[in-house]
Amino acid sequence: MAQLPSPHRPNLLDQLSPREREILPLVAQGKDNREIGSILFISEKTAKNYVTSIRKKLGLKNRTQIALFALKEGIINLDDTID
Amino acid sequence: MAQLPSPHRPNLLDQLSPREREILPLVAQGKDNREIGSILFISEKTAKNYVTSIRKKLGLKNRTQIALFALKEGIINLDDTID
DNA sequence: TTCTTCTGGTACATGATATGAACGAGATGG
DNA sequence: CCATCTCGTTCATATCATGTACCAGAAGAA
Fold first, then answer.
1. Nearest-10 Cα torsion for A37, A41, A43, A49
2. Mean of the per-residue pLDDT values for chain A?
3. To the nearest whole angstrom, how far is the Cα of A30 from the nearest Cα of chain B?
4. Position A11 confidence tier, pLDDT thresholds 50, 70, 90
5. Is A17 within 7 A of strand D by CB distance?
6. Rounded distance in angstroms from the CA atom of residue A66 to the C1' atom of nucleotide D25
7. Å from B46 (CA) to C27 (C1')?
8. Among chain A residues, CA nearest to B55
9. Using CA atoms, how far apart are residues B75 and B60, in angstroms rounded to an integer?
10. Which architecture does CATH list for B17-80?
């Protein structure tokens, strides 16, 4: 059976800004802030701030938990990652 | 189709010591070094050393990638995590 | 003994997190 | 029009967590 993105409670993702929704999958794929910055043409520091904002809005403690969340929500797929 | 733990190339997991195999799923569940230490009754520094050793043996860059690896290998399951 | 594992340590570099702030766009109410 | 309010985007500084590179002793197995 296909892993349906869980509908989830009051849509937690709607709390994220468009830019934050761009950052989220990159974090979840294990990319660090420097990589995210160069992908989106923003500074590492800005990327850092977005990750913090995402983490706070989602109530998570660190990047690894962001990745686990994104997988559960179907935002990213394990096949999308490299390693 | 059930997500079979991929047999993987020359078994990468066999390179890990027994203790490292205990640490791996904890890292993959998003726990920090302090938490891992208190769970296994070792110091945060020792936990840190194990994580470094695991990462090097598996050729990964950070904890998030360790989590993605563990999921692909079926070492942990998304349902095992809290968030 | 020799080897491996487990444990803890020091010292430093890099990455992540907390917090603040500047700026502009858009809405609102006067 | 103007003041203000909210939000998004951007970047910064300071502190904390993680990562890197070693070292070394204890315990047990080969």
1. -60
2. 88
3. 5
4. confident
5. yes
6. 39
7. 55
8. A83
9. 16
10. Orthogonal Bundle (1.10)
